[in-house]
Amino acid sequence: MSDKNKNGNDGQGGKNGAKTWQERKLEKVNRDDFDVISRKTRDQSDFIGMLNTLDNLLYQLRMNMGRSSNIQLDKAQEFLVRSQKIKDEINLLNAEMCEMMGWDYRPPRGFVNPVKKEATVKSTVPKEKPGSATSTA
Q1: Residue 105: how many other CB atoms lie within 10 Å
Q2: Do 25 and 34 meet the contact criterion of CB atoms below 8 Å apart?
Q3: What angle do CA 111, 106, 59 make, to 5 degrees?
Q4: Three-class SS state of 99
Q5: pLDDT tens for residues 5-41?
Q6: Would you list the domain boundaries of the chain?
Q7: What sections of 65-105 are H helices per DSSP?
Q8: What are 31-87's pLDDT values in tens digits?
Q9: Are 61 and 76 in contact (CB under 8 A)?
Q10: pTM flag (> 0.70)
Q11: Which parts of 18-123 are beta strand (E)?
């Protein structure tokens, strides 16, 4: 069999000057709405696939809320809240794993280190004085 694949192209840009998948990827890297993600584990490949789908779905949900009668606003709000909770949970997981390994965790922009935050909150809460009463109104 020759070096050409079953589509009759040799991987160097298909018929009529079509670009290879590598060339298309390199073009996307230069766009503002693309990030490059390293895949070191199979878990990461799973996350990338799910996040690409989630990104598209959240975009479509936000763009069509109030325009499509199929989208119930209360259900859409629930999806947005659940999405945020999942991000917070992954942030917490990352922080806890770093803490266990003795590493400093630097969360992505827009997030805080939830482990460090808990320690700060605990130390800044004033302690009650013995014998003082707390009102419950």
Answers
A1: 18
A2: no
A3: 40
A4: helix
A5: 555 555 555 566 788 988 888 888 888 887 778 888 8
A6: 20-71, 73-118
A7: 73-101
A8: 888 777 888 889 889 999 999 999 999 999 999 998 888 899 999 999 999 999 999
A9: yes
A10: no
A11: none
